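Kindly inspect what follows.
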Amino acid sequence: MASAASHVLLAETWSEEIDPTDWWMSEKLDGVRAYWSGSNFYSRQGNLFHVPDFFKEKLPKVPLDGELWCGRGLFQKCISIVKKQANKVVPEDYKLITYLIFDAPSHGGKYEDRVKFLKANIPENDDKCYATVVGIKKCEGMDHLKRCLADVNNAGGEGIMLRKPGSLYENKRSSTLLKVKTFYDEEALVVGHKPGKGNCTGMLGALECELPNGKRFDCGSGER
C-alpha cells in the first residue's frame, strides 16, 4: 500500500484559456497530503505516518486520498505533528488535525459517484471521527471562480482546485484536476528565503516575498 501512495492523482495548473463552467470547485488546502490505505496513513513518498489509533478508528477500510490539516496558515504546525518518529508522537496533538478527504482512489466510478460514496461512508457529527469530506460547489463561470478565489485568499487560504465533471481517478498528474492560484503582477519585497528540498538540496528553494498590502507568498527559484 505504501507504493500506491506514491501514485496519487496530481494537479496541473489552470489557465484562463480553460472555461471552468460546470467544473467542481473546492478550496486548495495547505495541509500534508496523506494516502489512507485502509489501515495506515502514508505520505506521497510512501513514508508511514505514525498516527494514533483513535484518529483512525472511524475511517473505512478502503483507500482514501486527502490531506491532514490543522487550519489555514498552519502548515508548519501540521508538519511538526505528522512527521514525528513513532517514539516521539504526542497522541493529543492529533486532536488538532482533521483528515480532509477529497477522493476514493479504488472506487472506480466517476467523480460524482466517488463523492457520494465518501459522504455515505464518513460519519458526520461524530466527536470520535477526525475526518470529513472536502466541500465542493459547481462553478458557474469565470466570474464565479474569481469571486471564490478572492474569498479564499481573503480568508488566508491558498487557492481553488477544479475537478472536471465525470472524470475518473488517475494515478498520475492529470488535466482533469487543476489548481488555481492568484497571480501577482505588482512589485514585491523579498523578506526571506527557504532551502531547497529533494533534488534541490543545497540550492535556494524559494524566495519569501511580501506585497505592499502585507500578504506574503513563496516564489520558487532553484538557483545555486
Notes: The longest strand covers residues 173-180. The radius of gyration is 18 Å. Residues 205 and 222 are 5 Å apart (CA to CA). The longest helix spans residues 142-154.
